[in-house]
Amino acid sequence: MIIILKKDADKSQVENLKNWLAARNITPHVSEGAHETLIGCVGDVAKIDVGLVQQLSAVESVQRIQEPYKAANRKFHPDDTVVDCSGPKIGGGNFQVIAGPCSVESEEQMVGIAKAVKAAGATLLRGGAFKPRTSPYAFQGLGKKGLELLIEARKETGLPIVTELMAIEHLPLFNDVDVIQIGARNMQNFDLLREVGAQTKKPILLKRGMSATLQELLMSAEYIMASGNPNVMLCERGIRTFETATRNTIDLTVIPVLKRLSHLPVIIDPSHSTGSAKLVEPLAMGATAMGADGLIIEVHNNPPCALCDGAQSQTPEMFAETMKKIANIRPYAWERS
Amino acid sequence: MIIILKKDADKSQVENLKNWLAARNITPHVSEGAHETLIGCVGDVAKIDVGLVQQLSAVESVQRIQEPYKAANRKFHPDDTVVDCSGPKIGGGNFQVIAGPCSVESEEQMVGIAKAVKAAGATLLRGGAFKPRTSPYAFQGLGKKGLELLIEARKETGLPIVTELMAIEHLPLFNDVDVIQIGARNMQNFDLLREVGAQTKKPILLKRGMSATLQELLMSAEYIMASGNPNVMLCERGIRTFETATRNTIDLTVIPVLKRLSHLPVIIDPSHSTGSAKLVEPLAMGATAMGADGLIIEVHNNPPCALCDGAQSQTPEMFAETMKKIANIRPYAWERS
Amino acid sequence: MIIILKKDADKSQVENLKNWLAARNITPHVSEGAHETLIGCVGDVAKIDVGLVQQLSAVESVQRIQEPYKAANRKFHPDDTVVDCSGPKIGGGNFQVIAGPCSVESEEQMVGIAKAVKAAGATLLRGGAFKPRTSPYAFQGLGKKGLELLIEARKETGLPIVTELMAIEHLPLFNDVDVIQIGARNMQNFDLLREVGAQTKKPILLKRGMSATLQELLMSAEYIMASGNPNVMLCERGIRTFETATRNTIDLTVIPVLKRLSHLPVIIDPSHSTGSAKLVEPLAMGATAMGADGLIIEVHNNPPCALCDGAQSQTPEMFAETMKKIANIRPYAWERS
Amino acid sequence: MIIILKKDADKSQVENLKNWLAARNITPHVSEGAHETLIGCVGDVAKIDVGLVQQLSAVESVQRIQEPYKAANRKFHPDDTVVDCSGPKIGGGNFQVIAGPCSVESEEQMVGIAKAVKAAGATLLRGGAFKPRTSPYAFQGLGKKGLELLIEARKETGLPIVTELMAIEHLPLFNDVDVIQIGARNMQNFDLLREVGAQTKKPILLKRGMSATLQELLMSAEYIMASGNPNVMLCERGIRTFETATRNTIDLTVIPVLKRLSHLPVIIDPSHSTGSAKLVEPLAMGATAMGADGLIIEVHNNPPCALCDGAQSQTPEMFAETMKKIANIRPYAWERS
Q1: Is D205 on the interface with C (CB under 8 A)?
Q2: In angstroms, what CA-CA distances link A103 with A146, A246, A307, C24, D48?
Q3: Which helix H or strand E contains B247, and what residues bound it?
Q4: Within an 8 Å CB–CB cutoff, is residue A33 touching chain C?
Q5: Does the N terminus or the C terminus of chain B have fewer Cβ atoms within 10 A?
Q6: Chain D residues with CB inside 8 Å of B61's CB?
């Protein structure tokens, strides 16, 4: 952290500032230049509130030099993290496609879709049992029953299952789940993050909030990791922009950017981001070309009758076609050098 | 809900659509015009997924006519809601100022600030015991001890207390709290909303998410109200924009807009939105002129030493000055006609 | 400008950097600390491309210390600029209301509205002769004929006139105009800015682009001022956000922020920002309370028949009522201390 | 256009509305349902101001059914437009890479880079002679001299040239230019759009404004086309979001979306959008996989010494490597079905 002093800061103000820093175990190194005086701060500056320093009477401006995340930071962990999802591995060159319906609806539906996506090449099965809905009057998911149906579909197909956890009191129900998803709206539900870090070692698929910056996403990953669970995967599912032609705007640049900043795997969700089944294929192809570690795609056997988000669900036929196109591109995918 | 059919929709497609609607207990009323065919939908359309209808083969576009919120809707509850905060009333012409530090730090601090803000005219006391922080390494609040200090400050001053709840498992600790705050990052933590609706009747101060629309804010209020708690107050605390000169951009237009859409009180937070103590006064004055039902302002006896957010805290002296200026403007505040 | 070096930067890289700076007449002052090495840069750093420095091999990060605008900067011109608009003065404690229709339509309309707004207390008259429309098929304004009608209305009422210039080749037609408006969509039409700076000394009302930062707005003012015209007024007319309940979101915080950063007057446009006549009054009241130097309000004698933007136009009766409410608040308006 | 009436609209209000429509040559078709009354509007509704209708006393809400653009609309021109750029064709299956420096600096530089990018496979040459800069103190381009150097580079290599026009009075200097670029900041400089439509038939590369919606981009294309020039290419160069890790956020979803809405070619600019040379390659690969009709990439022989935007320029070596990776992916690119 570097503090630039005001030109007209007097000695007593500067003395106060140095004492203030010292009280926080920060050692100040003063460099007086012709035009400005700088204070380099040595110590555990991660705990200092930058906004607060900025208001001190002697201070012109402040700059952090280091990222505030450590466990998630590529600088301190140069090798890619590889997450083992009960068999399939994600990251470090391992690419997987997670597929399935938005909501679990019935055994017939889940087993049917699971078989279809497996046949097309998916290696993990997704499905929502607890659903975050903006309206209290909308279908909220089958809950515990939904988890049972997912497990049934895994028995039939062998595909590990991925499903969303919305409240920590439901965690005991997730014992048989393979990968726990934290949704975009809970990305900064810090109590939930801390607990999935402390209470489990299962892989966590952490979705980026709709207006979150990448640093905020990485800080949320840091909450989980700092609490004891290193198995975090980052998922881009579209951000909010002014564009209305799609539901959200997927930010594919996050793939190379996150891979530079962090060692965690990056998964792209082309279904939620667009809200349109027809756009899933080109986005999945783009994400693959840009080096994503995985995709999570909604597939439904009968989209017009889906209880939620049918509009963005591919049919099994569309999904199979998309998987072929992805396979063509995957050998030429971008790799971080 | 009105469905506009594609020009080239054939009879069987339209028949399918009508059956699809009928299966959902919606009665379709078809109007064939020279240039387009419309279907007016009668029934409980709130449960229909608009995105899904939009994907059906015969459909050109769909439009909702009614807002998806009911309990929070001014149309169905024309009179202003007045929320009783253990004495002070908010809404329906009643204006209150809530003040206090960002975080509870010590008894001396809390009691000192409580006395100062009371002397300046504040009628409720705020203070954070559980703090949402983007970094797991930052000060997370005093927790239970913080709640005890708040209660101590209430004993000394008589000011009812407002404090944030971050996880439903902490609710039992909030028995002696007067007003429960739900923070911006939890605005769409639907499980938490449902439970503060079902498990308590205490007033809820619901903060708008940093990128939430007003409809989303009202839907979150609806979650609380639909679960049984009608005592909801809406709070604008600044939205994220491209501007970097302030931390967030406060959207004061929400005051007249929310008052037209809803009967719930509207509170403005000029402290978090700007991140700068110097901007609190002009924003508080603007919000008052525009007819806010209340303000929530951070005050700290020693801002440079505050454990969090000192940068945006007024001193008691600044706060007293601001209260005088607000009092000048309040008689001329805008009223909904 | 301060450059922070990478920890592993070697001597030759640092030597290269110093030479690179020297070639641009920048004198580097190196401060070696225990944990980082900084280079303070002395010279005309405004001409240095920060992004470029950031890419140099030895550089960890770069920070500008000074704002890139000079003529518009309060630091170098501590006193408020007062702009003389052919009689009425704006800024430095002088407050004016500009009113009139979105588009000039006919002599009867213009003279009628001009008399009405003058009677209500407006001191300048607005009206669009050249109209920026998103559709090439929409009404584009009366052009030269519109300017003539504005001048006619001025003759009848004595109100100076404000109207928009869209292309520099039209400037000769604006000889009799009192204040030239540059619209939000042209805020970064740099050729136009440069020419209204070089070819005229008339006051320029510069509207903020819909997604522009305040620094960008000030840089656009700087273009005009650096070309020779110091008579610039800054106008907030609403920014684009995710909110759909209003057309744009007005950012009233710009009033105290711009007054701290710059000495130029700040005008608020509550009509375009909301797109709704009913919201103009509360916004005008809020802007007044927060210390705006002026307001620009759309008024139309028959809004439903206006050729453009009738939806946001007040009637003369509404405007007169709003003027009274503003007058109540104005004595208590916030002032920069 | 469909108008939904208020439930409590009385007969005289509805009669007024019908007269208001009739006065604008719109024939209203009324459909009275059990729960709502609709008016389908037949006629040239493109000229009606929706916001205005929405304010009429009888009106609950209004919905446009048709897009407001015609010439640019895929519905009316189902076949892809193929633009001939003095030899190389873009669109309808033809893919081209435009490359060159941000700014033209010298003959040596231009000819050197032109030869390098040609050798790597680029088929058009870019270079800025007139530069839009946010600061009046920054390098503004070589102007006329820059155009001459571009033409010189074309002579040496045969590559057609693409360069930006900022003011219509410069058009006579562009006689020898092959493709005219309209920059993001001028996307809604309607006078400039109209004139490049009316005064030339040269291909226009129209860049999307930093916060523009796709409909606004298409309306700007419509301005050019309605004025007489059908040779428009749409270019995504990144939009403004809250992310700070990159300069802008490129929205690659525009490729499939624009191709559905319009028949015009879609070009992606991975250089300006990221502001970082290292991100150009993965973005170029993603854009290619998603079916872009072309790319425009900044290449500089000595990025650290570039007079502007060196930070985002690839070296000729990096560019050659990127071209190879693009060539691998191109055979598998997404195609609209």
Answers
A1: no
A2: 8, 21, 7, 61, 42
A3: none
A4: yes
A5: C
A6: 63, 65
